[in-house]
């Protein structure tokens, strides 16, 4: 957290990546990510659910623990899932405490703007760092009319600004800003004293976040990928190639070769065969 604050003060962009299990956290940590987020997007990318509404606190805690075990350098944040924090600030604090004690992450994230300010204040006052999430908030896609860019009108942009100021005032250490026009996200970032972590919000934010399986290309062809994602690799194609080669070699008895087998001395073998 102190490191993030000093990066922000120096104007050094903060690099954030999601992870959902031990290997995905290990590789993100090794690559030097500043923050590793156990996003509730794991509902889709790791559990095969339709959207994030189905994922439970227990699901999240299991994945948070595995990520925490692999993470040595990055600051870890767990996403509070839908239904675990909206009822009252007390409910939210209870869930946040479980994320720290059982999930073993260092901070939590929750979605929402001005209406969540009392909740963010409650959690931060208990000493738990909160990353807010404004702009497009996927858990509320039902009421937002699907995955829509936010702040595309002057009125909409004003709403994002008001939300950002409210969550800042409530004590969040930073905020994810999702699917907001670049100029709007940049202007809002200039008005704040805590970092914005952009996703689909242009290059004027204080940092960036992407969903790991999206940016490494670890998904089958044909999956919908939002416009803001840059695919830096093709892990799915690499895995497919490797597994197909294995299959070929099993079927043709090329694998295992002698170097993959354990030796036995000629004498022991002779005795065994008798
Ligand atoms: O769930 C998630 O992965 C997220 C990030 C995309 C910010 O909320
Ligand atoms: Na999320």
From TrEMBL:
GO terms for biological process: pantothenate biosynthetic process. InterPro entries: Pantoate_hydroxy_MeTrfase, Pyrv/PenolPyrv_kinase-like_dom, Pyrv_kinase-like_dom_sf. The keyword Transferase applies. One of its GO terms (cellular component) is mitochondrion. Its EC number is 2.1.2.11. GO terms for molecular function: 3-methyl-2-oxobutanoate hydroxymethyltransferase activity; magnesium ion binding. Pfam families: Pantoate_transf. It catalyses: (6R)-5,10-methylene-5,6,7,8-tetrahydrofolate + 3-methyl-2-oxobutanoate + H2O = 2-dehydropantoate + (6S)-5,6,7,8-tetrahydrofolate. Pathway: Cofactor biosynthesis; (R)-pantothenate biosynthesis; (R)-pantoate from 3-methyl-2-oxobutanoate: step 1/2. The keyword Transferase applies. Keywords: Pantothenate biosynthesis, Transferase. PANTHER family: 3-METHYL-2-OXOBUTANOATE HYDROXYMETHYLTRANSFERASE. Belongs to the PanB family. Catalyzes the reversible reaction in which hydroxymethyl group from 5,10-methylenetetrahydrofolate is transferred onto alpha-ketoisovalerate to form ketopantoate. This is 3-methyl-2-oxobutanoate hydroxymethyltransferase. It comes from Daldinia eschscholtzii.
């Amino acid at each position: 957290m102190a490191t993030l604050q000093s990066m922000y003060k120096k104007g050094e962009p903060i690099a954030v990546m999601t992870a959902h299990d031990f290997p995905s956290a290990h590789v993100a940590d090794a690559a030097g990510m500043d923050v590793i987020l156990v996003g509730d997007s794991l509902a889709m990318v790791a559990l095969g659910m339709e959207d994030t509404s189905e994922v439970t606190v227990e699901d999240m805690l299991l994945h948070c623990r595995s990520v925490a075990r692999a993470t040595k350098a990055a600051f870890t944040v767990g996403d509070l899932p839908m239904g675990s924090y909206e009822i009252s600030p007390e409910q939210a604090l209870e869930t946040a405490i479980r994320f720290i004690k059982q999930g073993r992450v260092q901070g939590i994230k929750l979605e929402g703007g001005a209406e969540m300010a009392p909740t963010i204040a409650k959690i931060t006052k208990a000493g738990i760092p909160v990353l807010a999430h404004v702009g497009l908030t996927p858990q509320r896609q039902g009421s937002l009319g699907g995955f829509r860019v936010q702040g595309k009108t002057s009125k909409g942009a004003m709403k994002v600004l008001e939300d950002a100021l409210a969550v800042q005032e409530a004590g969040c250490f930073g905020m994810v800003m999702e699917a907001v026009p670049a100029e709007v996200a940049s202007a809002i970032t200039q008005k704040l004293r805590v970092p914005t972590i952009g996703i689909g919000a242009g290059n004027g934010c204080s940092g960036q976040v992407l969903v790991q399986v999206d940016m490494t290309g670890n998904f089958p062809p044909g999956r919908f990928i939002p416009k803001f994602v840059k695919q830096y690799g093709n892990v799915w194609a690499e895995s497919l190639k490797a597994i197909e080669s294995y299959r070929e070699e099993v079927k043709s008895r090329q694998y295992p070769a002698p170097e993959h087998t354990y030796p036995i001395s000629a004498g022991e073998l002779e005795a065994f065969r008798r």
